[in-house]
Structure prediction request, 391 residues.
Amino acid sequence: MSKKNRDIFYDTSLNKRHIKDKIFKYMTLGALVLSLGFLIIFLTDMVGKGVGALQQTYIQIEVRYDDTTIKNYRKSVEKKYIKLVSRAWIRDIKKRVEKNPTLTNTTKLEWVLADDQVDMYIKNQNYKIKPKYLETLKQLKENDRVLRKFNRSFFSNGDSKSPEYSGIASAMVGTIFALIVAMTVAFPIGVATAIYLEEFANPDSKWSQTIEININNLAAVPSILFGLLGLAVFINLFGLPRSSAIVGGLTLALMTLPIIVVSSRAALRSVPASIRQAGYSLGLSKTQVVKDHVLPLAFPGIMTGSIIGMAQAMGETAPLIIVGMVAFVPDSPISVFDAATVMPAQIFTWAGMPETAYIERTALGILVLLTMLISLNIVAIYIRKKFETRW
Prediction:
């Protein structure tokens, strides 16, 4: 091959490589833009639907508090308003009288929580209201007796059969209880296992290899299988109460354990070998070196991996459905042994409801869950930075 032909060949080959580099660059950039576009569409849709649930409609009507209405709550308001008022609000009349006995045998003009269909009408969404009640509602609106207020009940109430009265408080409490149980069980066991495998165990022994294989396999197991394991062990074998936060927390602990072990081992492995050698040169034992030198340096990475593992567990639904944490729970649990549900399960339940009002609550519930997940990740970053600066 002559020099001229060789130069032409090299120039052609170089141009092809440059073209391929540009194509690869634009493909990766396009994938990034596409993923960001889907994220923006998702957040825009959730915010657009969820903002409406932050406000709830109230109507001003006369409410009678006497012996007859306390026994038959449907007689507490006039018949023409009965389909415009939240049934859950009317049913609570007896509780309000018990809390405030001065209401007995009185008639008061009050702002009453409106029915979900009234709320949908005021928000210009799909609604189902009979014509005669719709005329009454229009009259109330003309007389400025219809008002939209901040929906505090969403953050203070539990689930309810009435969409306008339902809230996410019981699911938030159940989620916190389940995460506390999961972290209490999974964190010490996972970190101790990682320390043993990384610092004390013989990597060539069959025992260590068996443990490592099982941990890697557990990390790839579908989450619903952990739910079946929790059902078989914690409920059927140990007899723990179904739908309780302790069962859900223990199930999440089993699922999170491999993640904590893997992340903790990576954090321990990242500590320079010179730290260990310096400790041994001073006459320290292996336990002292690990406890006083290696573990403090690896602790930021251990905490980061553990918190991210907990954040992943917070978003799990399948294993908790198997152990019954998708149950209808109107009141917030007081202990880990009480019936409870979690936020993903509550969102799953609302998403299957036929009422239009649940669409808003589903979107707002997703936003609350995302806020909690982002908060956990921020805490993980803060802890990592703090301990890195300290050590």
Remarks:
- The first helix runs from residue 3 to 50.
- The first strand starts at residue 55 and ends at 65.
